[in-house]
Each structure stands twice: as C-alpha cells, then as structure tokens.
Design a protein that fits this description.
By secondary structure, this protein is mostly beta strands. It has strands spanning 11-12, 19-21, 27-29, 60-61, 73-78, 88-93, 99-102. It has no helices and seven strands. The strands form two sheets. It has a four-stranded antiparallel sheet, with no helix packed on it.
Length: 103
C-alpha cells in the first residue's frame, strides 16, 4: 500500500490497530480487512561462524587455550572496529570449546 498524500510506502503501526502510517505522518486504515503482522528479525547474541557441523573445515592454529592449556584452536577474523585498524582474531579451543579473542 502507498500513501495517498506523498506516494511513499506505508508501514503497519506497532499497535497493529488496523492502520498503516507513512513517514510523512499520514495514517490510513487497512483496505479490504487485510491482516497485518509485524515480525522482528531474530538476532543471535554471538555472531560466530564456528558451528559443530563445520568445525572440521575451519582453519586451526597453534595457540594455548587460556582455560585448559590445549595447544590447538580454530580461528577466524572479523573487522570489529574502523577499517584503518587491524582485524580481531576470534579463537575456539579444539578440546574444551572455550572462546576468546586476540586484538
């Protein structure tokens, strides 16, 4: 549905009261008794690509685990700060599954 005033896309209100609102502030009733549902995106607390099914394909390095002392860990890189700063290395112990990071 589009706004009758400005022609922009209409969005359902949070209250789902049978109305849709436009960014310009115009509020219009839903036509034809259509049901509106709002779904929020599911986000994981930790965005970690190391999953049990693919751990065997992840690269490994020789680094001691701070928890158990095992000398082998899976690793991956993520850009967690500005692009002019180095990446953060995320590590997961192959033995105990402990996760930590190196800057």
């Amino acid at each position: 549905m589009f706004c009758s005033k400005c022609g922009s896309l209409l969005f359902p209100t949070q209250a789902v009261d049978g109305f849709v609102t436009c960014r310009c502030g115009n509020k219009e009733p839903v036509q034809g008794g259509e049901k509106i549902t709002i779904q929020k995106k599911k986000t994981d607390v930790e965005d970690c690509p190391v999953v049990d099914a693919i751990e065997g394909t992840m690269p490994k390095t020789n680094v001691p685990c701070p928890k158990c002392g095992h000398n082998e860990a899976y690793w991956y890189l993520r850009q967690t700060r500005k692009s002019d700063e180095p990446e953060t290395t995320f590590l997961t112990c192959c033995k105990c599954g402990n996760k930590w990071r190196q800057y």
